[in-house]
Specification:
The protein is α+β, with helices and mostly antiparallel strands and 332 residues long. The protein has helices at residues 16-19, 24-38, 57-65, 147-150, 154-158, 164-172, 212-218, 223-235, 245-258, 289-303, 313-316, and strands at 72-76, 85-88, 91-96, 99-106, 110-113, 122-125, 130-131, 136-137, 201-202. It has one domain (16-325).
Length: 332
């Protein structure tokens, strides 16, 4: 599909806080209140990511194999009614056959970005793979580039849902969605039972998620929380509720190793609170992703009211081995 992405990245970051003149914390609080109010009518997610990209089982395995587990995070939903839910942390979580279900998607650490022709950058939650300077994806065209990203916004149009392109147009003007014809060969939607085990994962042990749902709602997931969910996703079997013990153990070990956490560690701390800005802490991460995420959170906490240039990503990400982006002139 033809879209105008230059200077936008609206589908890769949460731009609503500065558009509504809200702080990040105010926007987060409002989103949760809105979700609580709508919970009776819809399966509202516990997190506040406005553009969550759902990955397939094979994509999760690919990220784990590449040592990029810190880039991934789960999404759980509130149950629409008591019959479809299972209680965890005092909350009714959407479930299938008594097993809480979840997606796995890409994390959005805070980054200094200036989309939509803004002169000054703003701290906004942005996809881990988004270069804040060029507003281009670092893994576009790479083997790990998610199918869901490649099919956007065609999937939204196929489901007759508003696209992020249209929301950006309404908020800032201009043309982003240049055509709205859905490709005839479009696939990968994975709806209904097709999604089970392939994109929608069911955790076989609800008791293992005690505390995880609360931390999801609070935006305080730990690396260990994420590793548990990634392991189940990697162990899932498309079209069934069956999980592989071998792949579960493999996925758990890979996720913890990539986060620099020992599988038998008793004092796990979350990525947003540990590590030094120069990435010198002990870690077995096989990728630039984990250290870069930690530094973004550290820079955001230390920044107070200041916002650095998006060009700092050269040190934070590319300095650790992140792929460079070509810039818009190179692809015109």
């Amino acid at each position: 599909m033809e879209v105008n992405c230059e200077g936008c990245a609206g589908c890769c970051l949460n731009w609503r806080p500065f558009h509504d003149d809200e702080t990040e914390e105010t926007a987060r609080r409002r989103a949760r209140l809105d979700a609580d109010a709508d919970a009776a009518a819809t399966r509202a997610p516990f997190d506040d990511d406005t553009n969550f990209v759902a990955l397939t089982r094979d994509e999760v395995r690919g990220f784990l194999e590449a040592g990029m587990a810190p880039a991934l995070t789960p999404r759980f939903w509130r149950a629409r009614d008591e019959e479809e839910g299972v209680e965890i942390d005092g909350r009714s979580v959407a479930a299938v056959a008594g097993r809480p279900v979840f997606f796995v998607g890409l994390r959005k650490p805070p980054k200094p970005v200036a989309p939509f022709d803004r002169e000054d950058p703003t701290w906004l939650p942005a996809c881990v793979f988004l270069d804040p300077a060029t507003l281009q994806c670092r893994i576009h065209g790479d083997e790990h580039f998610p199918d869901e990203c490649g099919a956007y916004p065609a999937h939204n149009l196929a489901l007759e849902q508003e696209t992020e392109c249209e929301r950006v147009e309404a908020a800032f003007g201009g043309r982003r969605l240049l055509e709205d014809d859905v490709p005839e060969d479009l696939d990968g939607l994975l709806l209904g039972t097709q999604a089970l085990g392939a994109k929608l994962f069911a955790h076989p042990r609800p008791e293992a998620l005690e505390g995880v749902v609360d931390r999801t709602a609070a935006g305080e997931l730990t690396s260990e929380d994420r590793a548990e969910c990634l392991a189940v996703a990697a162990a899932s079997s498309p079209g069934t509720l069956v999980t592989s013990d071998y792949h579960y153990e493999w996925g758990k070990e890979r996720a913890l190793e990539a986060a620099g956490v020992s599988s038998d560690s008793a004092d796990e701390r979350d990525d947003e609170r540990r590590g030094s800005a120069d990435g010198s802490t002990a870690t077995r991460s096989e990728s630039w992703v984990g250290p870069a995420i930690r530094e973004w959170y550290q820079r955001r906490r230390a920044a107070e009211e200041t916002v650095p240039s998006p060009a700092v990503a050269t040190d934070v990400e590319e300095g650790r081995g992140a792929p460079e982006t070509p810039g818009w002139d190179a692809i015109e």
